[in-house]
């Protein structure tokens, strides 16, 4: 959408905002730098980078409140489970809301006057139209230009390819549990240092996040980054095992697991306002930026 705006296909936006979790793949930061240099700056569109911290460091810091990642759990009785997904709200939505309030001139806790709002563009294509939804505060109104243009994911890929941006990476944490096997293989085979990083993190969160353990709320089981619920460097990322199929069937309650999701990961990943995780029932107070 930034490119569409810069080229005049869509109206010129005032700002583009990137919410940085502090643990994105290097390819994402490189791509963002390129977009800013080659597309945003020539069009006079400021790119604002916002952050609530470093999700990796926060998860391992016993002194820091941690918004949980959707980790795969193997309970003591051998049954699979999953922790709540709060990270998108804390590390994506919250810093965006904070910046929007600043741009409006009413930083938290000031109340934004009635009728004052920003129009926020959310990049959901027609393939995922059912995930399009409104923001949960009155000072932000979501718009979905790709749906308005009837653009599918394939249309987006064709357009990016025409601009020389066919290699646009998905923005999600390096160690996101929603990665599919293809994404884990890509990290392992193309970036040894990042692979070592996620393997080390996977081992470090085996007993849950550090803050919970420090406060006596220990995990009754073991946590893993991969759906197979084995250490990441032992996970079946080159193929899908029978045990992994069975676990997925139990999680989604069907006899027909989504093979694309196993291989490619969750399509929308950590997109704000398009989260398929447990945050659907969140309240405004969760992020401390109401009204």
Tags for this model:
single chain, 291 residues, alpha/beta, three-stranded antiparallel beta sheet, two-stranded parallel sheet, 7 strands, 36% helix, globular
State the end-to-end distance. Answer: 27 Å
Proportion in β-strands = 5-15%
Portion in helices: 25-40%
The overall pLDDT, averaged over residues, is: 88
Radius of gyration based on Cα positions: 20 Å
Describe the structure.
A three-stranded antiparallel sheet has the order 4-3-7. Strands 1-2 form a two-stranded parallel ribbon. The chain has 291 residues and is of the alpha/beta class. The chain has one domain. Strand 1, helix 2 (26-43) and strand 2 form a beta-alpha-beta unit. The chain has eleven helices and seven strands. The longest helix is centred in the N-terminal third of the chain and has 18 residues, at 26-43. Helix 7 (181-190) crosses helix 8 (192-204). Residues 277-288 have low confidence and may be disordered. The protein has helices at residues 2-6, 26-43, 55-59, 87-104, 145-148, 153-162, 181-190, 192-204, 210-214, 242-252, 259-264; strands at residues 16-19, 47-50, 72-75, 80-82, 118-121, 140-143, 221-224.
């Amino acid at each position: 959408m930034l490119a569409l705006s810069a080229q005049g296909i869509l109206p010129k936006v005032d700002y583009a905002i990137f919410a940085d979790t502090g643990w994105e793949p290097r390819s994402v930061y490189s791509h963002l730098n390129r977009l800013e240099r080659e597309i945003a700056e020539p069009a006079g569109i400021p790119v604002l980078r916002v952050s609530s911290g470093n999700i990796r460091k926060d998860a391992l810091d016993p002194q820091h409140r941690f918004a949980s990642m959707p980790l795969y759990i193997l309970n003591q009785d051998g049954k699979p489970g999953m922790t709540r997904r709060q990270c998108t709200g804390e590390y994506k939505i919250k810093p965006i809301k904070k910046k929007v309030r600043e741009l409006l001139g009413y930083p938290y806790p000031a109340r934004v006057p009635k009728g004052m709002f920003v129009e926020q563009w959310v990049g959901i294509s027609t393939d995922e139209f059912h995930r399009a939804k409104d923001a949960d505060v009155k000072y932000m109104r979501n718009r979905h230009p790709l749906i308005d243009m009837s653009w599918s994911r394939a249309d987006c890929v064709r357009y990016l390819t025409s601009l020389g941006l066919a290699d646009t990476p998905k923005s999600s944490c390096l160690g996101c549990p929603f990665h599919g096997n293809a994404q884990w293989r890509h990290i392992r085979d193309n970036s040894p240092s990042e692979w070592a990083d996620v393997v080390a993190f996977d081992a470090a969160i085996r007993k849950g996040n550090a803050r919970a353990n420090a406060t006596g709320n220990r995990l009754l089981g073991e946590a893993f980054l991969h759906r197979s619920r084995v250490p990441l460097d032992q996970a079946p990322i080159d193929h899908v095992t029978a045990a992994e199929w069975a676990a997925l069937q139990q999680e989604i309650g069907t006899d027909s697991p989504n093979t694309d999701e196993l291989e490619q990961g969750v399509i929308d990943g950590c997109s704000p306002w398009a989260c398929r995780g447990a945050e659907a029932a969140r309240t405004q107070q969760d992020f401390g930026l109401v009204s």
